[in-house]
Amino acid sequence: GQNIDQPTEMTATEGAIVQINCTYQTSGFNGLFWYQQHAGEAPTFLSYNVLDGLEEKGRFSSFLSRSKGYSYLLLKELQMKDSASYLCAVMDSNYQLIWGAGTKLIIKP
Amino acid sequence: NAGVTQTPKFQVLKTGQSMTLQCAQDMNHEYMSWYRQDPGMGLRLIHYSVGAGITDQGEVPNGYNVSRSTTEDFPLRLLSAAPSQTSVYFCASSYSYGSGANVLTFGAGSRLTVL
Q: Which of A95, A98, A103, A104 to mutate to test the interface with B (most CBs of B within 10 A)?
């Protein structure tokens, strides 16, 4: 079957760096997405990786290793507004998205 | 530019009642979809559409119907509500289907409770 694993919850301190991991087993691969979802709101797009390596976008970076079925989202200079759930999703060979359950990130002052 | 508009935001139903969740987008997106989000689980695809007149089932289609008569609208119908359908429902759209870099734009969500 298809599976996406990510930690349920993480806690970090304002101003610090946090890495949220995602491992996947899917039928084919057409890219990996990270979305941010604040409590009670809709998910919003953060990043897309289809080739191995690091994609940097401001304070957020996303890494992909297709051979290991592994990705991480790196958040630097954490701010209180980064408190949210982070969803990892993989597009399979049928171009359907398989979603992880999300990682709830709690930022403490 | 409103993006994806979902109504209603909240709804309480009794078991056996029917209702329609409305979804409209103004971005001329080909692809539209309905997801449900439950605690501790990833988003699960209910139905999707790759263009007007074309719909297909996702992972959890039972108990739901959809239609796509126009590019803009993609309503989700609950035929006979059951407590298991208590969830948060999201409509999402993207420019096209069948390419990797297909970023979804989500509506604000509809929280449905079935008693």
A: A95
Region of residue B100 (phi > 0: left; psi between -120 and 50: alpha; otherwise: beta):
alpha
In this structure, the strands spanning B110-114 and B10-13 are parallel
- CA-CA distance, A57 to A46, in Å (whole number)? 9
Burial B71-109 (b: 16+ CB within 10 A, else e): bbebbbebeebeeebbbbbbbbbbeebeeeebebbbbeb
Q: Are strands B76-78 and B87-94 parallel, antiparallel or unpaired?
A: unpaired
- Across the interface, whether the CB atoms of B99 and A48 are under 8 A apart is answered no
Burial B32-65 (b: 16+ CB within 10 A, else e): bbbbbbeeeebbbbbbbbbebeebeebbbbeebe
Closest approach of A97 to chain B, Cα-based (Å):
8
- pLDDT mean over B70-83: 97
The whole-number pLDDT of residue B1 equals 66
pLDDT digits (tens, 9 = 90+) for B36-63: 999 989 999 999 999 999 999 999 999 9
Residues 6+ apart with CB under 8 A from A58: none
Q: What number of other Cβ atoms are within 10 A of residue A90's Cβ?
A: 25
What is the residue type of B16? G
Chain B residues closer than 8 Å to A95 by CB: 97-100, 102
